[in-house]
Structures are given as C-alpha cells and as structure tokens.
Design a protein that fits this description.
Elements lengths: L11 E9 L3 H10 L5 E4 L16 E2 L8 H12 L5 H20 L7 H4 L5 H4 L4 E2 L9 E2 L5 H14 L4 E4 L2 E8 L11 E8 L5 E11 L20 H8 L4 E2 L4 E8 L11 H5 L3 E6 L2 E4 L13 H15 L4 E4 L5 H7 L1 H9 L9 E10 L2 E3 L11 E3 L4 E2 L11 H20 L26 H17 L6 H24 L4 H22 L25 E2 L4 H6 L1
Parallel strand pairs: 1-2, 1-9, 2-6, 9-17, 16-18
Antiparallel strand pairs: 3-5, 4-5, 7-8, 8-9, 10-16, 10-19, 11-15, 12-13, 12-14, 14-15
Helix pairs in contact: 1-6, 1-12, 2-3, 3-12, 7-15, 10-11, 13-14, 13-15, 14-15
The protein binds succinic acid.
Length: 561
C-alpha cells in the first residue's frame, strides 16, 4: 500500500537516452544506445517485473526451411484481418534473424531439438526446436522451454548491469513526459524527457534527455481478468496521449484463449504452444468432454487467437459452463515436463497433472494491439519520442496480433529506433531545457480519501470486462462511455487537488487508456479481428487498412472549435 507523497525537494539531471520500462524493448534499446551516450532506464518496480518476463511462447522468426519470409508475412496478414501495414510486416519479419543473433550473442539460450527429442540424430540435435502457435502455418517459434521471456530478461539484465554507460533506476515511475507542447509551444512538438517519481520517497525528479524511448508495455490491468502482471497499467499510452502523440487502434485488445481457471491461479497463462504440441479444446457436455473448435474454423484449436477466444466465449455463454478444457493427455509426461516445465509445475501446484488430467481454462485480456502510432523505427509524431514494443503501434499486428510476433517486433524496432535517433534525431529542441520547470505540487494537499482510488480502480476493470470485452454491443459501449466520463472527471479533480502517489498516477493512466479503448471501439462501426460488435457483426467492405486514430487537441485547436 503506497503512502501519500512527502514534500522533498525535486532534483534534475540529464542523459542522452531515457528509457522508460525494462522489458525486452527497453533493455535492447538501452544496450544498443549505450555506445552512443549516457543511458538511464527507469522502471516502476524491480527491473525484471515486466510483461516480457511472463512471455511463455517465444519469438516467431523464420530460421529454417521449409519456412519462408513469405509464409510468415502471409500468416501475419491473415491474422491481422486487413489492417496490417504491408511494408512494416515485411520489414519486421525480414529483420528477425539478425536480431535473434544479437540475443544469442548476449547469451540467450534457445531450446535445441536434441534437448527434447531422444532420436533426433546428431546432424539435427543443434537445430532450434521450433514451436507452433495459433494462426501459424509452420513451426517457427523459437523458445526457451516455456520460460522464453524469463530467459531473455535474464541475459539482457546481466548485460545491462555489466555496462557502466547504463544506469538502471528501479522503483521509479514516470509521472509524465515533458514536451514543448506542455510548455505551450505551438510549433513542432519535441519530447524533452520526463518527470519521474521515486516510489520510496515520492520525490519527483526532472529527467532531461535528448531521446526518450517509451517501452512501458501493455495495459492488461484495464480488465478484471488478465494474464498481465500488475505493472501493465497503460502508462506509456496515457503519457504519450497527454503529450499530444498520435494513438492508434486501441479497440483491438487481444484476449488469450487459455488462462488457467482456478481461484488462486491469477489467470496464469497456458501457452498456445501447448495446442501447438497437439492439445485440443473441449467443453463438458453431460458426462462427456467434446471438441468444438472445428465447428468454428478449419485450423481447429490452432485458428488465429481472436477466433479461438470468441469461440470459447460463445461456448461458455451458450452452455453456462464456467470454463473449457485443454486436453494434451496423449503426450508423455517426460515430454511435457521437458517442453513445458513451468506450466507443468504450476498445474501440479493446483492438483492438475497435464499428462493425466484435463486443464480448465478461460480467456483473459492479454495484449494491446493498438498503442502510440509509430513507423518501423518506433518514431512517434512527437520529435525525439520513440515507442517500442507493446506500447507502440507500428502496423505489424493490424486487428489481431499473430502469436509470438510481439517479441520479434520489440527486438527489430528497438534496434531501428537507436539507428534512427543517431541518423535522423530531431536535433535541438526550440526551447532550452533550462526553461523546463521542476515538478511543483502547487497547493495540493495530502489525500484524505485513499479509498476513492481503490474503488475507481476496481470499478473500471469490472465494467471494461463486462461491457468492452470479447463480445461488444453498442449499448454496452455507451454504458461504459457514460461511466468512464464520470470517473475520469473525478480522477482528474483528485489528481490536481491532492499530492500524487504511485497508485493515483497508475489509476489516472488506466482510466485514460480505458476511455481510449471505448472511444476507438465506438468509432468502429464493424466487426474486424479482435473487435466484435454484435450490432455490426460483419467487416465493413472497403474499410481494410483504416486505422482508428486519436490525438489530444492542442489549446489552440480547442479555442478554434
Ligand atoms: C503464449 O505463449 O500463448 C503467448 C504467446 C504470445 O502471446 O505471443
């Protein structure tokens, strides 16, 4: 439980690269930027507490025949339901193999076939073991068992800690970006750094940077049930919006079809790779368990994720059952323990033996396909501000991300962003950083009603789940909009009246992101990819390629209206 802020004097300091967030996008950007200047990484909690750490599946990348770049592109476009940006898809997929070599050089170990198969033969023992997930027509997912994210984080953190040019500030939370627009400069909008709070002292420092990399990950905590850790409160998207960056496609929230259904499992993910190794999806009918996915798609349980999550939702609503089941009992215990050590152990904790029992699962919010609009270099519409990884929206994922394309995107865009900043960095901002004021609490008082924060936090997550989830209707969206409007007003007033705390900062961001999701969902009068509205059940002809776009108006624009 966070304590109210103290009034310690703020400090200010300068760096070349400010990286906000410490998942794969942030740490790769830090390592790539380090030879070119001083890097500061700020991260809300411990350095390894981020979405990356929980990534089980792996990294989709073309590494061996019979796979081809064209096949990976085709699968990505097919999952993306007409909204992927073709040039970006090509660039990111083709950029993959080099970035995998970077990871290997930094010490990441990917599982080899010889580690899993007994009779693989010496000439193939060293080949990558390639997993398969929903929407992929080939095995192409590099993995480290089922703890790929943990392995990647381990190696990157070790590298960053060993590099004296990189300073990592743990337990530091970005409060807001600093932009020339904040200073009411109406010309080109430059990012100049961020205000950052030390969670221990609540002191807010001014970090001035030449380049700012937003790598804050996703916003799963907007929903009641999510596979994401507590840090995923949408901070980056909310801050970028306040700094007048363009935001895209927030209606496309990906629900992972298979999270463990158990009161104490906190939506623990059961990787899609389990289906890639042959698991089927079953629902209880009388005293029997029957497969249902072939009624929905010819790829069955390995259909693209939006289709599987919607099918499960439909089956649960139709039958009134609380969960469906994964069945992988045909694989040997030996194989399952080696291929899925973490999932196997977690299931056992709850009395479920993967090799003998059905695994109860339900969908949960998992990934935000929209975000801060960028090009393939992560460059946003704010000069010197980059958004990389889940916080960004390059156009790779379109209306539905292909499984395991996210770590690939983070790796390629992090590399590109550093190269872009070196070659095309937006130069000197039009106002001197000396003119940036330090954070001031003004007349704000210590909060007298912390309960408001917890109540609003819960209320948002619950109505987002009920009204803005897998199955949407116009009426539900309108209900959600009415509620978020009131809550946002209350939260903004609270924010300006009282001294800010980490909980309040996160709540404000969460509410802001919830409203963006609702606004984009209301604006899209069709069903496409992850966005399904029963009042517009078909994709609109001719709307392929039309992104949803949000941008906070400037003071001058509001005045002109
Ligand atoms: C999974 O392992 O099922 C998740 C992978 C992903 O979200 O890309």
């Amino acid at each position: 439980m966070d304590q109210p802020a103290t009034r310690t004097a703020p400090s200010r300091f300068f760096c070349d690269y400010l990286v906000i967030g410490s998942g794969v996008a942030g740490l790769v950007a830090a390592l790539k930027a380090a030879p070119h200047g001083k890097v500061v990484v700020v991260t809300k909690r411990q350095v390894d507490e981020c979405n990356t750490r929980y990534a089980q599946g792996g990294i989709a990348c073309v590494t061996a025949e019979p796979d081809t770049f064209d096949a990976h592109v085709a699968d990505t476009l097919n999952a993306g339901a007409g909204l992927c940006h073709l040039d970006i898809v090509h660039d990111i997929i083709r950029g993959g193999p080099e970035r995998i070599r970077d990871l290997q050089e930094w010490g990441v170990h990917f599982t080899r076939r010889g580690e899993l198969e007994d009779n693989v033969g010496a000439q193939h023992a060293q080949d990558f073991d390639l997993g398969r997930e929903g929407g992929h027509t080939q095995r192409r997912v590099l993995h480290a068992g089922d703890v790929t994210g943990e392995e990647v984080e381990r190696a990157l953190i070790e590298r960053c800690r060993a590099d004296s040019r990189i300073q990592i500030l743990e337990n530091h939370l970005a409060v807001d970006l600093i932009s020339t627009r904040h200073a009411h400069w109406e010309g080109e909008n430059y990012c100049l750094g961020a205000y950052v709070m030390d969670r221990a002292t609540h002191r807010i420092s001014t970090l001035i940077s030449r380049f700012t990399f937003l790598t804050t990950g996703g916003a799963g905590k907007v929903y009641l049930y999510t596979s994401n850790p507590d840090v995923a409160s949408g901070d980056g998207v909310a801050m970028a919006y306040r700094a007048h960056a363009e935001i895209r496609n927030m209606e496309f929230i990906q629900f992972h079809p298979t999270c463990l259904y158990h009161p104490r499992a906190k939506s623990f993910l059961i990787s899609e790779a389990v289906r890639g190794e042959g698991a089927t999806l079953k629902i209880r009918r009388h005293n029997d368990y029957v497969e249902f996915m072939q009624d929905y798609h010819e790829m069955g349980a390995l259909a693209p994720r939006d289709i599987v999550a919607r099918a499960i939702d439909q089956e649960l609503k139709r039958t009134g059952q609380p969960c469906v089941f994964l069945d992988i009992r045909h694989r040997s215990e030996k194989f399952l323990r080696k291929r899925f050590p973490k999932i196997f152990a977690k299931c056992l904790e709850f009395g479920i033996h993967m090799g003998r029992d059905l695994i109860p699962v339900v969908p949960a919010a998992h990934y935000c396909c929209g975000g801060v609009g960028t090009d393939v270099n992560g460059a946003t519409t704010v000069t010197n501000l980059y958004a990389i990884g889940e916080v960004g929206c390059t156009g790779l994922h379109g209306a539905n991300r292909l499984a395991s394309n996210s770590l690939l995107e983070a790796l390629v865009v992090a590399h590109n962003a550093v190269e872009h900043s070196r070659r095309n960095g937006g130069g000197e901002p039009p106002i001197s950083p000396d003119l940036i004021p330090d954070w001031s609490s003004g007349d704000a008082k210590d909060s007298d009603e912390q309960i408001v924060i917890f109540h609003n936090w819960d209320e948002i997550r619950r109505f987002m789940w009920d009204y803005v989830g897998i199955h949407r209707t116009t009426k539900r969206l309108e209900r959600a909009k009415n509620r978020i409007r009131l809550l946002r007003k209350e939260i903004e007033k609270y924010y300006w009246d009282f001294i800010v705390t980490p909980d309040l900062i996160e709540l404000r961001n969460l509410a802001s992101v919830a409203e963006m999701i609702i606004d984009c969902a209301m604006a899209r009068k069709e069903s496409r990819g992850l966005h399904f509205n029963a009042d517009f059940p078909e994709a609109e002809k001719g709307s392929a390629g039309k992104d949803s776009v949000l941008r906070r108006p400037t003071k001058a624009e509001i005045w002109l209206e």
